[in-house]
Please model this.
Amino acid sequence: MCAASVSRTARLAAPNVLVTGGAGYIGSHAVQALAAAGHDVWVFDNLSAGHAEAVGRLQAVFPDRRLTLVQGDITDGAAVTQALRASAAAAVMHFAARLSVGESMREPAAYYRTNVSGTLTVLEAMATCGVRHFVFSSTAATFGEPQHTPIDETHPQVPMNPYGETKLVVERALAHLERATGLTSVIFRYFNAAGADPGGLIGEDHTPEDHLIPRAILAALGGDPLRIFGDDYPTADGTCLRDFVHVSDLADAHVAGLRRLLAGGASAAYNLGMGDGVSVREVVEMVARVAGRPVPHVMAPRRAGDPARLVASSQKARTELGWAPTRGALETIVRTAWQWHTRHPQGYRTRA
Model:
């Protein structure tokens, strides 16, 4: 068993955790939350979208925690196994994935290769090492076009795009793996992650940037005009309706899910959102208000694979995990994102 070198007492107190994709946007905020909760963390990331600087910044503010970056790819089973052995991890948080809806429509094979095959490689390495707890970053895209809102965990899962489909394949596989191996898992289906660490330490840095709020901010800062994909949806102002949740609140939920598993809790799936739908136009207006300047934008055709409305019911997470998001107001989300992007105009290449 790979984790045999860690005493049972140490595990129960604050066990080591391996975080795949932990140098990325949501993953790095989860690493921050884990370190704050007393865990030593091994970050396994190929750095194709993640940033070593994020891990370095976190280590600097958590000197009593060991935050180790291992560069590797989740499709490399030997590398994952080696990282599990080195970390003596009791659990894995899995964020490493491709996650652009539009790209998944153009390159579905790449999404199946990374999101399905890569995740199964991680799970096989966990079985080899005797690691039985898995926290999985899934998505609201598994639901497809809503049949009712808000969307709770009983809603049918009928994805409209390869991104959502690949995440659903893994969700279904986890139930079979639990029966076969005893693996326990917590699945988080979150809606629209947004914002940045309120302290300004880490934030969102994608190339190219695919998310609405940072694209609107970059447009306000003089970048290319924001493209709004579709203004003919069946919504009040014709633009898509989305449920935005602060990335640090998401990170807190992941720590709560981990605690559930480590305490012997059963596997479960949770939706994470604020329960309030905000239109694309409303986001643009909020960015303009926070920035104190207009957001140049142009209309574009609908983007393939985008449902009109995605709004969550997170009551189950609130009840079972005690999850209580504290940064959910749209203004708070936009303001933390604005602070990050204005202080880091070149992302992590900007000196802190």
Observations:
- Residues 41 and 241 are 36 Å apart (CA to CA).
- The chain has twelve helices and 14 strands.
